[in-house]
Design brief:
Oligomer: single chain
Shape: elongated
Strand order of the largest sheet: 6-10-11-18-17-16-15-14
Largest sheet: 8 strands, mixed
Number of helices: 16
Strand content: 25-35%
Number of strands: 18
Length: about 500
């Protein structure tokens, strides 16, 4: 440890010791703040600011964390922060009493206090509360970080989000917006007749999807269980059961890598609507995202990490084959065989297996040459059947499926299908997918109960899933998914 770090640690230790001594003194005097169970505040700081004309000269009771203090003899100023805003306090010895004032001067930055006082505006124009009574509600035994150095450690910010929220109002605003975004999504879907539902998080099968699950064990049943990697198959069962419009806001778990757009657990919004198709889902996505931009950001012209994103419609809609042709000049229709496709891909520098199909090559070209160009909102549709095991085949060309993904800032934001409702075709795709997973060492199984549901008959259905966290990143101009998760997954400290 460097001399500077050693000195900082010793200073922190000394401050902690002093605060504990203050707490011991309070307890010895019969003033243990932790014994206080309730404080009846009647106003939030934001309300004082927004309704100052009505509250000027009125008595209010507020509470929060003391973030700073300036003692000037017989009078002091302090900043009090609650969940809504900050408020300046004016505290005079003659108003609160000598004993209370002396006690106040011994309190520490970070302590949680309650104040009863009169709303007024200072000569400098600052809306404030002139204290008449002050109460210590909880003692802070650790000092708050120094503003300009202690909060630059992003790893510490994510690990100690509670401190991050205390010190950074912009972080608090991000999570307030996240809540508003979720409320707007629910309002939008509810207004269109969708029913919000909950489906199981623990599954008894490792289904044959692409993502790797987290595995746990049920002691009573003595069986392995798997945290869900999607909500799709249970939601489709509800469509079979006659609930024509359903959605779930659900926590998803995938045992995969972490980066700026991936966390092992995240929130998805998944919905299904009977008697529509993937074009209906495109219309719904575009309407929803434009509405969110307008209501959350006040405009459809967003700035994300220095780029201007034009959210207003209509969004471009390209088939994957059209997009690949636009950015590479290669035409899928020119490939008569899989070998033709592999040769074309290799000329573009792709490394391809000798079993790669035309669909595999198209997907590889798209990922290598197209995705990074999709800055503005764009729908890419008609995906090869090779990577779309749950989507309905295209009536125009059975090598493709009625599937789309939409991209913003070169990032995939969501995925949608005209859902496969042919149980025979679905079984064949499941079995092929399970075989591939088992070849990789997974214990994947065919979901026989889902196939049974399909055999009872599922109407033509459009389905859509999108990540809430990436959407929040976009609407709050956040560079990392960790910035929009209150408690992102972190590697344990040694």
């Amino acid at each position: 440890m460097s001399d500077q770090n050693t000195s900082a640690a010793e200073s922190l230790s000394e401050q902690t010791r002093v605060r504990r001594e203050k707490l011991a003194a309070l307890c010895a005097e019969g003033n243990d703040p932790y014994r206080i169970t309730r404080f009846d505040r009647d106003t939030e700081n934001r309300t004082v600011r927004e309704h100052f004309d009505e509250l000027d000269g009125k008595t209010v009771t507020i509470a929060g964390r003391m973030m700073s203090r300036r003692v000037m003899g017989k009078a002091s100023f302090a900043d009090l922060r609650d969940a809504t805003d900050r408020m300046q306090l004016y505290i005079r010895r003659d108003d609160v009493g000598t004993e209370a004032y002396q006690a106040f001067k011994k309190w520490d930055i970070g302590d949680i206090i309650g104040v009863r006082g009169v709303v007024f505006r200072t000569q400098k124009g600052e809306i404030s509360v002139h204290a008449e009574e002050i109460t210590l509600l909880s003692k802070s035994l650790l000092p708050l970080p120094e503003k300009f150095h202690g909060l630059r450690d992003t790893d510490l910010r994510y690990r100690q989000r509670y401190v991050d929220l205390m010190m950074n109002p912009e972080v608090r605003e991000t999570f307030l917006k996240r809540s508003r975004i979720l409320r707007e999504i629910r309002d939008f879907l509810d207004s269109k007749g969708f029913l919000e539902v909950d489906t199981p998080v623990l599954h008894t099968l490792e289904i044959g999807a692409a993502a790797r699950p987290f595995v746990t064990h049920h002691n009573t049943l003595d069986i392995p269980m798997y945290l869900r990697i999607e909500t799709e198959l249970y939601l489709k069962r509800l469509i079979v059961g006659g609930l024509d419009k359903v959605y779930e806001v659900g926590r998803i778990f995938r045992n995969e890598g972490m980066d700026t757009t991936h966390n092992p657990e995240f929130t998805s919004v998944e919905l299904y609507q009977a008697y529509t198709d993937y074009h209906g889902m495109m219309d719904l996505v575009e309407e929803l995202y434009i509405r969110l931009a307008e209501r959350i950001c006040g405009t459809t012209e967003l700035t994300y990490q220095g780029k201007t994103i034009h959210m207003g419609g209509p969004w471009p809609r390209l088939t994957m084959a059209e997009a690949v042709e636009q950015y590479t000049g290669l035409r899928y229709a020119d490939w008569a065989t899989d070998a033709d496709a592999r040769a074309a891909g290799k000329e573009k520098g792709l490394e391809l297996s000798e079993t790669a199909t035309r669909g595999d090559v198209l997907i590889a070209l798209f990922e290598a040459f197209v995705e990074d160009n999709l800055i503005q909102p764009t729908f890419i549709y008609d995906y090869p059947v090779e990577n779309s095991p749950l989507a309905k085949r295209s009536a125009k060309d059975p090598a493709f499926t009625e599937r789309f993904e939409f991209f913003i800032n070169a990032s995939e934001m969501g995925n949608a299908f005209s859902e496969l409702n042919d149980p025979i075709d679905q079984r064949e795709r499941f079995e092929r997918q399970v075989a591939e997973k088992r070849a990789q060492g997974a214990n994947a199984e065919v979901d026989e109960d889902f196939l049974t549901a399909l055999e009872y008959g599922m109407p033509p259905t459009g389905g859509l899933g999108f990540g809430l966290d990436r959407l929040v990143m976009l609407l709050t101009d956040s560079a990392s998914i960790r910035d929009v998760l209150l408690f992102p997954t972190m590697k344990p400290l040694d």
